[in-house]
Automatic annotation (TrEMBL):
Location of this chain's protein in the cell: Cytoplasm
Residues at the catalytic site: K363 (for fru-6p isomerization activity)
Residue range from the parent sequence: 241 to 608 of 608
Superkingdom of the source species: Bacteria
Sequence ranges assigned to domain SIS in this UniProt record: 44-183, 216-358
Name of the molecule in the record: Glutamine--fructose-6-phosphate aminotransferase [isomerizing]
Transmembrane regions: none
Signal sequence interval, chain numbering: none
EC class name: transferase
Amino acid sequence: FMADKGNYRHFMAKEIHEQAEVVGRTLAHYVNFAGERVELPFDLPFDFKDLNRISISACGTAYLAGLISKYWFERLARIPVEIDVASEFRYREAPLEPGGLALFVSQSGETADTLASLRYATAEKQHTVSVVNVPTSTMARESNVVAQTLAGVEVGVASTKAFTCQLTVLLSLAIAAGRARGTLTAEDEKELVNALIAVPGQMTEAMKREHQIEVLSRELSKAKDVLYLGRGTSYPLAMEGALKLKEISYIHAEGYAAGELKHGPIALIDETMPVIVIAPHDSIFEKTVSNMQEVAARGGRIVLITDERGALETGLDTMATIVMPSVHPIVAPIINAVPIQLLAYHTAVFMGKDVDQPRNLAKSVTVE
Ligand code: AGP
């Protein structure tokens, strides 16, 4: 097999740009477009109604997809979700009720810690569901249910299209769980499914911010440290933004829950450290705005990723505001993944780094 970069300079650029297509393809497997409902392409050996909780484990970007889905499962299906990085889960001897659901997320399906967690869950008599991109992988073989992402081969070490496809599958599962548990009405499901159906088009729209982001990345490349902030599902996305940037540009970056700012990281704010705030206009928007005001009052330079309404309502001076299309708040993290990926990519390219093959990193970590 020989992967092809097409007209792109790097696999990562190609994979970022492919997302509307592969998310659409993944969606077509999980959603009945005409029926406006989720239809899972497999049978589940359990009923969501009978679950007391879901335990999720994964590593890196796949873990952050899992963390976003915690918000979805809890909000839409009212199931408590416990989530851990797999390297912790595998050793902490978590008590698991037999017949519970253990969920794993992995692009490769070969990550050593995630596989070990899957084996632990199997030994503890859990139903195991793995969201994987490689259907022939070890994790796919050893799981009760394979929830495949149809991202196609991902070559860039920095995961991009696998992440947004994982989110697509996880949101479909959360909607299915909400229906089974009676926490979503047929009307609610329609609304959510239509929000999902709109995602590929909105991702294409989001790509149109690329030139602005490329210009901005020149500024970012001068930074020694970058702080990413967000609330709700934008919080795991802030961590994903920081992970992407540090992986390929080697700039130190941290992702924080915006509400944690005053519990420590605010001490770092000065004119030299860019603060990237992810704040779509949702129910907690005002809370994030007040955190931004705290940053601005200390001379911090803000890059705001928001939507049309958010941009109108902040009334703050920012270093840059990236205005995303207005989308249903539930799918916002899928769309907002695009600008954070582009920002990391262009910063690293501008700095002359090897974005597809960053130093010290392997595409899949098959040894502990
Ligand atoms: C993402 O950009 C990373 N390279 C890394 O965190 C990755 O997501 C992690 O190693 C998990 O890999 P997997 O999805 O193949 O299990």
